[in-house]
Each structure stands twice: as structure tokens, then as C-alpha cells.
Amino acid sequence: MTDKNNDTTEIILDSIADGVFTVDRDWRITSFNRAAEEITGILKEEAIGQRCCDVFHASICETNCALNETFETNRPVVNRTAYIIDADGVRVPISISTAVLRDKTGDAIGGVETFRDLSTIEELRRELEKKYSFHDIISKNSEMLRIFDILPSVAESDSTVLIEGETGTGKELIARALHNLSHRKDKPFVAVNCGALPDTLLESELFGYKAGAFTDARKDKPGRFAMAESGTIFLDEIADISPALQVRLLRVIQERTYEPLGATESVQADVRIVTATNRSLEDLVKSGKFREDLYYRINVIRVKLPPLRERKEDIPLLVDHFIRRFNNLKKKLIADVSPDVLAVLVGYDYPGNIRELENIIEHAFVLCRGTVIDVENLPKNVRPEEGRSLARLTSMDDVEVAFITEALRRNNFNRKKTAQELGMHKTTLWRKMKKLGIQSTA
Amino acid sequence: MKVAIPIWDGRISPLMDTACYLLVADIDEGRVVSRETVGIPRAGIPGHVSFLTDRHIDVLICGAISHQLERMLAASGIRSYPWVRGEVGEVIAAYCNGVLQNDNFLLPGCGRRRRRERGQRCGRRMGFGARKLFKEE
Predict the structure, then answer these.
(1) Quick one: DSSP state of residue A64?
(2) Cβ-based neighbour number of residue A421 at 10 Å
(3) What's the confidence (pLDDT) of residue B123?
(4) Check: CATH 3.40.50.10860 for A132-304?
(5) What residues make up the domain containing B18?
(6) Which of A87, A145, A410, B79 is the most buried (most CB within 10 A)?
(7) CA nearest to A47 within chain B
(8) What is the number of alpha carbons within 13 Å of residue A354 lying toward its C-beta?
(9) CA pair distance B124, B74, nearest whole angstrom
(10) Is the pLDDT at A296 greater than 90, yes or no?
(11) What is the dotted CATH code of the domain comprising A390-436?
């Protein structure tokens, strides 16, 4: 009768698509189904009686064994991702689940491990990623896909491009993609953050100087325009340059020549200019802070990047991308984020856009000890405040605090914008914040 | 000759790609002259290779290993004897005595690999008619 039962069990185990093996308390394999043979490339006869790590050689055997965890905690492990090296030396991604095996009296007699070959899923994921990625930029948002569509033609044109987008939306990635798609791709790509340098320094940085141009100029120094010769120069935060520098830049764009500081002759510049800003140049032109002629010169082709809060459908893709990136960088084996985390991440407004999402995932990587990122691993400012959900608020003051804090967060803690959104004067908002004890920064 | 063995719990580590510790033994005329254990930084496959080359390792004896790492080791001039298992002391003694090819030191599946690949991988290295390969040269 027992033999018959064993046979039936074996038939059932062999008929399922997941690999299954069982071990005794000494980690010796006691059963090994057909799918396990196929996935590992090791025959049942060879596996039975062997230590499971000698058969399985998984990435988690040494440091994060799922069966060991199950024995220690008496709790099953579900869908832990790892990889094994099969008998041919090929890396096979798998998902592992484990449970304790008990006898009739309830004593643990060993463990069972089931594992699923994720190779096909992994391939499909890679295909999807290919479909939704363009030169390191990942998106399936319709507006972004439209940009991906026009970028090759824009790159070919050699015209000046203005990239608009909030901080962290990937303006430099677009500039690099434009360069890499252009005929200048084998020449230098030089990025300059115009907002990072004081005006006088920026001028010598961009155009270079001749020996003797000023007290410490002992020898000639080529500027960024010279360094980018035949290539592309990317001028980030273009709105921050002074009116004087705007004039010089206008001349470079119009005449393709410039003079290094202290030079008497002009230098020819064969450089494609790509500019970017996180402010509205149109508004700056209206208020007289940015030259209209320069604006029209740099605004030949405009690429406007949507903020992350307007392309939330990309959050799962981006989260997945950052998890893989940080797994590689930090040598970790984090598989995913929990559904709660994804809900929190989709609900958040990202004033810092994709860069902020990247920082959130990096923060979670540092704190996450398992294989799935949980809500506790997220930075405090992203986590929903406990007891702050509207249903749990008990007084009008509480409701006001929650409402104003949320509006402030949405507007990157800009009080003027927040006041406008809430339809009150900024002094009224300030007074309310003070009364309710709301912090004015993140 | 410097021989390296990834170790875990006194035995050869099941997977070279993710091993945490490495035993480096200096072997001269079949005798272990010195040995030390070092931690392997988690720096991926290229990191593993440079970690071994920086220590001037001549031979690596290990358990399972990915093709990718095995090829990179070969390209770096490190001779590897993969798919080996067992207690570290016994493995070193077997290597010194040229008997590492014995079945009890082979990981399960190695026989199948041998048959399938006609000695191209394990077979060639594990000493079928080439036992002297395992003798310290």
C-alpha cells in the first residue's frame, strides 16, 4: 500500500512543471522530480542522497538559503528569486518557495523546495524593456514615446535644441541621446551646468582664455566650446546665464565664432548646441530677464519632458529598472517591491522627478534586509503618515494640517504656488502654517 | 604555485560566482607551504577575476561556476578545475596527490556532462587519461 502511495506521489510530482525536491534534516536530497532534472540538468539518480547545495548550486545557498530560513523560522518562504548554475554552466533565473515537512506527530523531518524556471519570463521582460527604452531612457508614456519617435530626426538635423523639463526629468539623457544619434557621435559630448558657476568663471569656462588675459592666466586654456569642437555642447540651466553672457552666446549661435578671453582673433566653432532649462524661458523673456533674440535662436526645436507625476504609468518600469541597476551596483539580490510599496510610490508626487524615485529606491536598498522592499524601507517623507488618513483625523485642525501639508508637498514646498492652488493669500497660508505648526520645508 | 579554493563551512563553496571566502594555499613540491583565508569582495564576475589575478593565483579549484566566469578566468591565465566538491583539506590533499579526478570529488551531474560533451569540459580537465594535469606542475 505504501509503495503504491509513493508511486502515486512520484507520478504527481513528475507531472508538474515546477521543480520539486525534498531534503532530510541533514540537507540530503530525498526526492527529485522530473522538472527539477530538466531545470538543473542533473538526473534524479545522481541527485538523490546528495547535499542539496551540491546539486542546486544557487546564488543564495551560501548567504540566504531559503530552506534554512524555513527551518529556523518555521515559516515558508514564497517566491524568492535567485539563480542557479545548471550542469552546463548556464545561469538560470528561478523563483524559490520552501516549506517544512512534518511527520504524523508534527515533528519536522525535512523540507520541500519548489522552484520555477524564470528564463522565459526574463526574456519577455527584456523584450518589453527593449520596447519601452530608448538610449537609457525608459518610458511607455505616450508623450515620451512621441519624443522617442522624433529624436532620431531631430538628432540628424544639427539644429539647436531646447530641452524643457523639471529637475530630474532626464534632460541630460535626452541631450546625450541626441548626440549619440547624430553624425557627431564619435566626437566629444561636453556638458556644462551654467547655473553652477559664477558669471565671470562661466565665461572663461565656456570660451577659454589666452595667456596674460588676467593676472593668473599663465598659459592658454581651451574652453568648453573648443573641447566640444565637431561634437555637441550641452548647456544645462541656460536660464541662469547673465545678460552679458547671453549676448556672447547669441553671437556664437549666429556667426559660429567666438573670442577666448584676451584673444584678438575669433575662433571658428563647429559645435552643435543643445540647451536645457527647468524654468519657463517664455516667462523670462516676457519679464525681460532673457533676451528674446537668443530665445528664438535656441528654441529652433523644443523638446518638453513631462514630469514623473504626469507619467505615473512609468513608475513600475522605472522601479524595476532601478532595482536591477542597484542589484548590480550594490551586489544585492532584491527581487521586487511589495504591492503596498508600489501603491505608495504611485501615489507620491515626485517634486524631484525620476532622480527622486532613484534616490528613494537607493534608500530602500540600504535598509532592505530581505529580497522584497517593504514600506518601512522607504524614506519617511514618502511613507504615508500613520494615523493621518482622512478617516482617522479627529479635528478640523487635523484635517487642515493634512490638507496643507499635502498641497505643500505637491508644490515642492513653494508657499506662493501652494497658496495659489489653495485659493488663499500667501500671508494667510503662512499664518495658518505657523498656527498649526507645519514645517515650511520637506 | 598558488592554489585558490572558495570555501564555505569547511567545504568547497557550492558556487564560485557567489562565494564569500577564498582559501589561498602556496603549494611547493606537493606540500602546502602556507595558507590563508581571505574574504572575496562582492564585486561581480570581473571583480572576482581581478581579485584572483591581483593575488597571482595560478590554479583555482572550485564547485559550480558560470561559463562566463570560467571563460574570463581562462583568458586571465588562471587554470581552473571546476565542479569539484568535498572537505577542503581532503581536496587539497587530493590535488597534491593527483587524484582530484576521483568520483567522490565530482559534483553530481559531472558524469553526465562528461558523457555529453565527450570530455570537452569536466572530462578533459578531470583527468581522463590526463591525470598528470592534476599533479602539481
Answers:
(1) -
(2) 14
(3) 39
(4) no
(5) 2-134
(6) A87
(7) B108
(8) 26
(9) 14
(10) yes
(11) 1.10.10.60
Nearest one of A378, A358, A357, A359 to A367, comparing CA atoms = A378
Distance from the B16 Cα atom to the nearest Cα atom in chain A, whole angstroms:
9
Q: Does residue A1 surpass a pLDDT of 70?
A: no
- Is the CB of A219 inside 8 Å of chain B's CB atoms? no
Q: Do the beta carbons of residue A192 and residue A233 sit within 8 Å? A: yes
- Give the count of domains, chain B: 1
User: Alpha-carbon distance B69 to B80, whole Å?
Assistant: 10
Distance CA B48, CA A287 (A): 59
Phi, psi of A29 (to 5 degrees): -75, 130
Nearest CA distance, A92 vs chain B (angstrom)? 10
| Mean pLDDT along residues B14-25 | 94
Which three-class secondary structure state does DSSP give residue A36?
Answer: helix
Report the candidate in A332, A238, A324, A227 with the shortest Cα–Cα distance to residue A278. A238
Question: Which residues on B lie below 8 Å from A59 (Cβ)?
Answer: 15, 17-18
Band (A292; pLDDT cuts 50, 70, 90) = very high
CB pair distance less than 8 Å for A43 and B85:
no
Q: Do A59 and B15 touch (CB under 8 A)?
A: yes
pLDDT tens track for A69-100: 999 988 898 888 889 998 888 899 999 999 99
CB-nearest partner of B20 from A41, A56, A62: A62
Q: Name the pLDDT band for A196 (thresholds 50, 70, 90).
A: confident
Angle at A28 between CA A25 and CA A33, to 5 degrees: 115
Question: Which of A41, A55, A59 faces B18 most closely, judged by CB atoms?
Answer: A59
Identify the residue whose cell numbers are 514646498: A413
Report how many Cβ contacts below 8 Å link chain A to chain B: 73
The domain A2-117 is placed in CATH, from the list 1.20.1250.20, 3.40.50.300, 3.50.50.60, 3.30.450.20, at 3.30.450.20
What topology is assigned to A308-377 in CATH? Answer: Helicase, Ruva Protein; domain 3 (1.10.8)
Which contiguous run of DSSP H or E holds residue A319?
Answer: helix A315-330
Arithmetic mean of pLDDT over chain A: 87
Q: In whole angstroms, give the CA distance from residue B82 to residue B103.
A: 13
CA nearest to B6 within chain A: A62
Q: How far is CA B18 from CA A90, A226, A432, B81, B92, in A?
A: 14, 47, 56, 17, 21
Q: What is the CATH number of the domain that holds B92?
A: 3.30.420.130
Percent of chain A with pLDDT over 70: 95
